[in-house]
Write a structure and sequence with these properties.
This protein has a single domain, classed as SPOUT methyltransferase, trefoil knot domain (Alpha/beta knot). The protein contains six helices and seven strands. It has helices at 10-16, 38-51, 63-70, 86-95, 135-138, 158-169; strands at residues 28-32, 54-58, 79-82, 99-103, 110-111, 122-126, 143-146. It has a seven-stranded parallel beta sheet, with helices on both faces. Helix 2 (38-51) packs across helix 3 and helix 2 packs parallel to helix 6. 28% of the residues are buried. Keywords: Methyltransferase, Transferase.
């Protein structure tokens, strides 16, 4: 490393970021509504903090513990609990004039590199790691984004895919 490079301290970084509390009304929300692995929820919660987003998760018995274990920041994060049918929650978000963006392998999908930054309240929907977004929820999506891959795998895990899309949606990638 060059002797002229000054590494920023955690204190420097805190002073530069989010001088006021955020508001969820004109915001970005990551919604892994069909989670499979608790570790992915913790990782996604950390990404939400990094980009200033909220996390919406279903009220399943194991989810609160997974989030508590995954929250390595040790401060309160913005978590919305989805009760009842997840498609009903998505329909409610759409009725609130949110853009519903799904991360899915679909013919009409926008490539991640072509996804514009979110200009209004946006919910990023992430499906089940093995089966994707259920058919009954696909009709509620305004846009679908696909992450191109050149390797042998078909898709990324929810935490990685969600992190990439969140960074792109806030305009940091």
């Amino acid at each position: 490393m060059s002797p002229n490079v000054r590494v920023r301290t955690p204190r420097d970084l805190r002073r530069q970021r989010r001088p006021r509390a955020h508001s969820c009304w004109n915001h970005l929300i990551a919604a892994p509504l069909w989670p499979l692995h608790g570790l992915n929820l913790g990782t996604l919660l950390r990404t939400c903090d990094a980009v200033g987003a909220c996390l919406a998760v279903p009220r399943l018995p194991w989810v609160p513990e997974a989030l508590a274990r995954g929250n390595t920041l040790r401060h309160r994060s913005c978590v919305h609990w989805v009760r009842g049918p997840r498609t009903a929650w998505l329909a409610e978000q759409r009725a609130r004039d949110s853009t519903i963006l799904g991360v899915e392998l679909a013919e009409e999908a926008v490539r991640l590199a072509d996804l514009p930054a979110a200009r209004r309240r946006t919910v990023v929907v992430l499906g089940h790691e093995q089966t994707g977004i259920p058919a009954e929820a696909l009709g509620l999506l305004d846009t679908v984004v696909e992450i191109p891959m050149v390797g042998t795998g078909v898709s990324l895990n929810v935490a990685v895919a969600g992190s990439l899309v969140l960074y792109r949606a806030v305009g940091l990638l």
